[in-house]
Amino acid sequence: MENRNILKKDERIDQLYSQDVRIIQNPHYFAFSLDAVLLANFVRPNHRQKLKIVDLCAGNGAIGIFLHDKLGGTFTEVELQPQIADMAERTILLNDLQDRYTVINDDIANVNDYISKDSIDIVLCNPPYFPVTAQSQKNPNKALAIARHEIATDLVTVVKKMSGLLKMNGHGYLVHRPDRLGEILQVCQENRLAPKRIQFIHPKPDRDANILLLEVIKDGRPGGVKVVPPLIVHGADNEYTPAVQELLYGK
């Protein structure tokens, strides 16, 4: 599909060179951030062709698209906001991946109206990070407020839906804020998701972590959590570190 025919007002196409994919972005509604690239990188490769993968709170479909080469099988992108789900559908067409990807435009609370429980191998989620505040409710940009704050969904709903979709021993992947780690681990364990791998992302070498990546296994054995080496985003010179450069631009 030609680029000029696929874009709507204020949209642009951004490229993730490391994965050779293009993503339709609109800063007024939703644009993927480094969090999406980091979560896709954290996912373990699996090239089984019959995998079933669901991306909850999918936004413009960036995380799922970034994984087109790393995971086999089919992807279902679940996004609440119609204008953002529409961007995801056109991004799939732009990358000629419509044989493997579908979009559901609905609340993740209703995901089992479309997908059976206990039927999915991998569930991904980059949810809203921030609890609702008076300020977030007043945000004039409703689309961005919903993407960032727990207005339309929350951590408990995300984890319950992830657990409900996953088969026994299925893998879930979540990106979130380190300051909510205690709550995240508690909610996961209450919903049969055993934490197995954690990575902390630091904006600079001397700064506290500001992003958390978590892998869980449904009905996994308790214990055996690995905290893998941290990733530093920027060096002292404010440039991306070599590791992050590679994630964005390839070797």
Automatic annotation (TrEMBL):
* UniProt domain Methyltransferase small: residue ranges: 38-139
Q: InterPro entries, alphabetically?
A: DNA_methylase_N6_adenine_CS, SAM-dependent_MTases_sf, Small_mtfrase_dom, tRNA_Adenine-N(6)_MTase
Question: GO biological process: any one?
Answer: methylation
Q: Which UniProt keywords apply?
A: Methyltransferase, Transferase
Q: Which Pfam families match?
A: MTS (PF05175)
- Mention one GO molecular function: S-adenosylmethionine-dependent methyltransferase activity
Record protein name field: SAM-dependent methyltransferase
What species was this sequence derived from? Limosilactobacillus reuteri (Lactobacillus reuteri)
Which classification does the entry list for the species? Bacteria, Bacillati, Bacillota, Bacilli, Lactobacillales
